[in-house]
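Training component of the fellowship. As part of building independent skills, the fellow (R.M.) carried out the full modelling exercise for a liganded target. The chosen ligand was NAP. The inputs are recorded below so that the supervisory panel can assess the work.
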Amino acid sequence: MSIETLKIPGIDKAVSRIALGTWAMGGRLWGGSDNELSIKTLRHALASGINLIDTAPVYGFGLSEELIGKALRGVRHTAVIATKAGLQWDDGTTRRNATAQRIRKEVEDSLVRLETDYIDLYQIHWPDPLVAQEETADELERLRREGKILAVGVSNYSPAQMDDFSRYTALATVQPPYNLFERAIDSDILPYAKNHGLVVLAYGSLCRGLLTGSMHSATSFGGDDVRRIDPKFKAPRFEQYLAAVGALEVYARECHGKSILALALRWVLDQGPTIALWGARRPEQLKGYEEAFGWHLTADDLTHIDRILASTIKDPIGPEFMAPAKR
Ligand code: NAP
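Fellow's submitted model of the complex:
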């Protein structure tokens, strides 16, 4: 099965519609991670044709980017690196900061950690309400002219914020949360992206592992794992989401001969100009990625899936708990 790809304006290489998400490789907020396995996962993804890698300086406070730099030695030009800016961390607390000065420092630090002289896609991680969009966007425009970045994206921005931002620099992508269970973007960001030619990098496309079908009622998370504070993973909601996963698993198998993981990814890919970010930190987690390609969900499938969700999840909740402090 050949990998589906699409083009991001400003980047010559076509990118795979499944991208490797590397937040967990940073270890922080994911109960720690194994660096050797992370590097193997990065190389395995690239060898499998997954050429888009999403990261951020804040993931492991630099560690995720450093691992990417190491893993891509000698093959950097075969990969498309998407990193971010606009968050700073002091004494372990993460806050927004999208001033021109901060962006300039972040890009230089990221280039060193990533062992490269350019970043393919540079995204503002969260909107900073204390800084004029003009200041942030102008700095990105300068970086693009200097050749340090090829394309500009934003993450967690509203359509109004994107409208303002794109008066100063051309936007290529937007990165919101999006998966079968978290669909707030259907009413605003997704139509906006379609109307403005933006590619959507959907984060949490497996709902932090829920949509892999590997969890059960006794699943627990260790250390600082973000899922310990994620309301979806707490009673009574956890049981409701697990019931939805169970029913979706049966539907995927009986109607399409697929795993729930493939169904969840396909659902994201069928919604528009989307790329599914798949967070993985062990090579075997990417097993079966090709199952998501080469087929489509029908309108009947979508109706049936929605019925499953409505009958199992009585108390839905989004990923809002993830938003960092505003300073
Ligand atoms: P995700 O992709 O929904 O889930 C990732 C987790 O699912 C993995 O860490 C792993 O957990 C589990 N998993 C993956 N494959 C599996 C498999 N085959 N079997 C069983 N479990 C599996 O969540 P995410 O990592 O939060 O989101 C993806 C990416 O989006 C991130 O890595 C990051 O690049 C980006 N992101 C961006 C933002 C933003 O604000 N822009 C926010 C969140 C995420 P275990 O390793 O613990 O088993």
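The panel noted the following from the submitted structure. The chain has a mean pLDDT of 97. The radius of gyration is 19 Å.
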